[in-house]
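User: My advisor asked me to double-check a structure prediction for Xyloglucan endotransglucosylase/hydrolase before group meeting. I don't want to rely on an old file, so could you generate it fresh from this sequence?
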Amino acid sequence: MSLALLISLLLLSFHLSNAQPNPGYYPSYRFKSSQFYRAFNNLWGPQHQSVTGDQSSVTIWLDRNSGSGFKSRHPFISGYFGASIKLQPGYTAGVITAFYLSNNQAHPGFHDEVDIEFLGTTPGKPYTLQTNVYIRGSGDGRIIGREMKFHLWFDPTAAFHNYAISWSPYEIIFFVDDIPIRRYPKKSANTFPLRPMWLYGSIWDASSWATDNGKYKADYRYQPFVARFTKFIVRGCSPWSPRRCRGAPSSPSGGGLSNRQYMAMHWAQSRYMVYNYCRDPKRDHSLTPECWS
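Assistant: Sure, here is a fresh prediction for Xyloglucan endotransglucosylase/hydrolase from the sequence you gave:
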C-alpha cells in the first residue's frame, strides 16, 4: 500500500470516528510537572487563590469583589507550557478562565499575546475554547485578533483535561489532551510574536464580550465562579538561556507536527472548530496577511 493511500485512509477513518484519535505523540506525558510556587507568583486577587499543600494544584475564583490571576516568575522566548484545568459547570456566562502567554505588562498597549481562553456559557450550552494570537499592538485602537474557536469533544467541567501551548521561533501549536487543534506558523516577523512573554492563568469578568458577544452577563447569584489548575508543565527558554537551549519538542522529530498529528488536527478542526478568523467575511483581511500569504 502506498504512503499516500495509507494517509488518505487514516484521514477518512479519523473524519468518520467520534472517538479522540491517537496523535502518536504525547508531550504532556514527557515532562515532570512543576510545583506552583517554583514556577509562578500571585499576580492579583490573592484572597481568591488557594494552593494545595504540596503545590501541585491551585484553585482560583471570581466573585463580585474580585477575580484572581497568577504569573510565571520568569519570561520566556520559546517553550512548551501546559496545565490540566477543570472548569465550573452551570451558569458561567461572562466569565473567562484563561491560560496564556503575554508581555502586556512590559509593553502596555503594544504587546504580544497567545491565548487559551474558556468563554463562559449558560446551562445546556457547551463551553467555547478560544485560541488567539496578538502581535505588537492589540491595544492600539485597531485590535487585530486572530481567533479560532472550538467546542470540545468532552465535558471540560467533568474532569481535568490538559491544555498546552508550544511556542518556537517558527510556529505556535495549541494542544488539547495532546491533540493539536491549531498550528500558527511564522510567515513574517510582522505577524508572529518574537519578544519575551510571561505565562499567566486567570479568571475574570468579561461580561462585555465573553458570551454571545455580551448578550449574557456574569450573574453573581451563581458566585463564586471557580477554576482549578494542576499538572503545570513549564519547559521553556528564557532570554538568558544559552543559545543551545531548545524548548520541549512538539513532535517526534522535534518541531512541527508529524503526519499523524496533522491528521488528528484535521479531525479536531473538521468536527469541532466553530469559528476561524480567516474565514470571516466581516473581517478586514488586509490586517491579517497570514490568512492569504
